[in-house]
Automatic annotation (TrEMBL):
Residues 408-594 form the Dihydroxy-acid/6-phosphogluconate dehydratase C-terminal domain. This is Phosphogluconate dehydratase. GO terms for biological process: D-gluconate metabolic process; Entner-Doudoroff pathway through 6-phosphogluconate. Residues 70-380 form the Dihydroxy-acid/6-phosphogluconate dehydratase N-terminal domain. Catalyzes the dehydration of 6-phospho-D-gluconate to 2-dehydro-3-deoxy-6-phospho-D-gluconate. One of its GO terms (cellular component) is cytosol. Gene3D superfamilies: IlvD/EDD C-terminal domain-like. InterPro entries: 6-phosphgluc_deHydtase (IPR004786), Dihydro-acid_dehy_C (IPR042096), DiOHA_6PGluconate_deHydtase_CS (IPR020558), ILV_EDD_C (IPR056740), ILV_EDD_N (IPR000581), IlvD/EDD_N (IPR037237). Pathway: Carbohydrate metabolism; Entner-Doudoroff pathway. The gene is edd. It comes from Novosphingobium pentaromativorans US6-1.
Length: 604
């Protein structure tokens, strides 16, 4: 086992020390739950009969407690391309459970919204808090206390973090995440990006744009760019919660089916009645959280996880902050470039060596913890292998010795850049995240007068009017969790990219989110404290000079803010169900703490 890199060891030790009390409280809760709900025998006959009334041939096994009963918590719907393949999973998983003497039931469903559909429109304001809703829905599914393990079916942006947060509150049970894989590659990402910019400039029609987008997002499976959904899958591998190599195997293939079958068999083998009991609370610990952070940085993953990782960690009693991410970023080299950080998508990444390559490189360099418990019996080293079918049987082989494409995947010894893709910037405008991996280094520092906006639509209109055709820092405020649910502002990328291509110095500063697919424009996002409630962004005025620098980690203005009054916040909007989430907005914590209302109210 390779010695751990000093920075990784230092950050891990700091997180362990900081989390000592909260982690102990969490583990105490899990131990109490394991004692109180050790099996279904504590349920009354009436309770139990309700639980297996419709279980058909599995009734006897569930009634007598003679087999591990697995909960399936599914995010299936057939509007999301990534989740459409889940439709038939439950009936298949029940058959595979019986193969090893177990049973399975669909414990519940959780909502799954698509940011790609709601992007730039009213529904996006429900997006972040859908994560809390998913976590609570997971809790409801598991509250029947009928189960000995959890199979968690989810992939996309808020769905995996929500399932994780909810499942961790039942951490006395083992858990496996079951993905379904990415759709086949469509048109080239460069071609898609070009059409988007042409449309932003009025040089392409809506029909042209729709044809381009339809050629990109075209079938069942996860979107193929390396955004939040695919970063989720990477992190589940790095935390040891998948079957090894399951992340990027295409849907509806024999190998994908074999991996799902293996996940069911493995989950049945980790239950409380087995000799290899692996409760989720022991798999998801401080070291696993650090491994997820390292994977995110080494692969240039989604900035959304600067919010999701602290929230998931809190659910396990672990306290993670942006200083931890920033210090790890300084020590972890960027070894992959997947669109929008490169030209190829996750299918090309997987073919070039994929997660098996990444895990091996990080372990061999001492950048990830090898001494962790995983759902795979051999531990983290198992994830340095890739799954294959040999004579129709599932097997694993070592990662390739060399990268299949060194424009996409490189060894730690020859990285794309010496540090990870995410940096903390801070100053008199607050603390924020800057994703460097997709931005050319000559644009890491921007200093220019600002234009202040309160909606994406206002930015788009100013762009169309030619008001932004200059060096400018675009500030979009009142986009934080408490203001309007912290929507992604992905629609800003094409017009700002056009301004940058015209030779202007351009940057974005916002207390909102940018998509995991955000690209080449320098941006300080998730600014905290947010503008609502008097955060510094509420004090900015048009023309104030703002300096954003990933090189020295600054986010500041030269203007004197001390005598100014905060700008009034826009009135809360109604419609598209936004009013139903008012209680979440009122209670939400800051972005650095995960932007969750549920975790704040629960005192986690």
């Amino acid at each position: 086992m390779t010695d751990l890199a000093p920075a990784v060891a230092r950050v891990t030790d700091r997180i362990i020390e900081r989390s000592k009390d909260s982690r102990a409280r969490y583990l105490d809760l899990v131990a109490r739950e394991a004692d109180r709900h050790s099996d279904r025998s504590f349920l009354s006959c009436s309770n139990l009969a309700h639980g297996f009334a419709a279980a058909g041939e599995d009734k006897s096994a569930i009634a007598t407690g003679s087999a591990n009963n697995l909960a399936i918590v599914t995010a299936y719907n057939d509007m999301l391309s990534a989740h459409q393949p889940y439709g038939r999973y439950p009936e298949q998983m029940k058959l595979w459970a019986r193969e090893v003497g177990a049973t399975a039931q669909v414990a519940g469903g959780v909502p799954a919204m698509c940011d790609g559909v709601t992007q730039g429109f009213d529904g996006m304001e429900l997006s972040l808090f859908s994560r809390d809703t998913i976590a609570m829905s997971t809790g409801i599914a598991m509250s029947h206390a009928m189960f000995d393990g959890m199979a968690l079916l989810g992939i996309c942006d808020k769905i995996v973090p929500g399932l994780m947060i909810g499942a961790l509150r039942f951490g006395h049970l083992p858990a496996v995440f079951v993905p379904s894989g990415p759709m086949p590659s469509g048109i080239s990402n460069k071609e898609k990006q070009k059409t988007r910019q042409l449309y932003a400039e009025g040089k392409a029609t809506r029909e042209d744009l729709l044809a381009s987008e339809s050629a990109s997002y075209h079938s069942a499976g996860t979107c193929t760019f390396y955004g939040t959904a695919n970063s989720n899958q990477m992190m589940m591998e790095m935390m040891g919660l998948h079957m090894p190599g399951a992340a990027f195997v295409p849907p509806n293939t024999p190998l994908r089916q074999a991996l799902t079958r293996a996940a069911v068999h493995r989950l049945a083998g980790m239950g409380r009645k087995s000799e290899d009991y692996r409760p989720m609370a022991q798999v998801v610990n401080e070291k696993a959280i650090v491994n997820a952070c390292v994977g995110l940085l080494a692969t240039g993953g989604s900035t959304n996880h600067a919010i999701h990782l602290p929230a998931m960690a809190r659910a396990a009693g672990v306290i993670l902050d942006w200083d931890d991410l920033s210090e790890l970023s300084a020590a972890v080299p960027l070894i992959t470039r997947v669109y929008p950080n490169g030209s190829g998508d996750v299918n090309h990444f997987h073919a070039a060596g994929g997660m098996a390559w990444v895990v091996r490189e990080l372990l061999d360099a001492g950048l990830a913890h090898e001494d962790v418990l995983t759902v795979s019996p051999g531990g983290m080293r198992d994830y340095a292998q890739e799954p294959v079918l040999m004579d129709e049987a599932l097997a694993w082989t070592s990662a390739p010795a060399k990268s299949g494409d060194d424009t996409m995947l490189r060894p730690v010894s020859e990285p794309f850049q010496p540090d990870g893709g995410m940096r903390l910037v801070s100053g008199n405008l607050g603390r924020a995240t800057f994703k460097t991996s997709a931005v050319d280094k000559e644009r890491w520092t921007i200093e220019a007068p600002c234009r202040v906006f309160e909606t994406q639509e206002a930015v788009a209109q100013a762009f169309k009017n030619g008001e932004l055709d200059k060096d400018v820092v675009v500030v979009v405020r009142f986009q934080g969790p408490r203001a309007n649910g912290m929507p992604e502002l992905h629609k800003l990328t094409p017009p700002l990219g056009v301004l940058q291509d015209r030779g202007h110095k351009v940057a974005l500063v916002t207390d909102g989110r940018m998509s995991g697919a955000s690209g080449k424009v320098p941006a300080a996002i998730h600014v905290t404290p947010e503008a609502l409630g008097g955060g510094p962004l509420s004090l900015l005025r048009d023309g104030d000079v703002v300096r954003l620098s990933a090189e020295d980690g600054t986010l500041e203005t030269t203007a004197d803010l001390s005598a100014r009054q905060p700008a009034p916040a826009p009135a809360a909007e109604m419609g598209m169900g936004r009013e139903l989430f008012a209680m979440f907005r009122m209670s939400a914590g800051g972005a650095e703490q995960g932007g969750s209302a549920m975790l704040e109210v629960a005192g986690l």
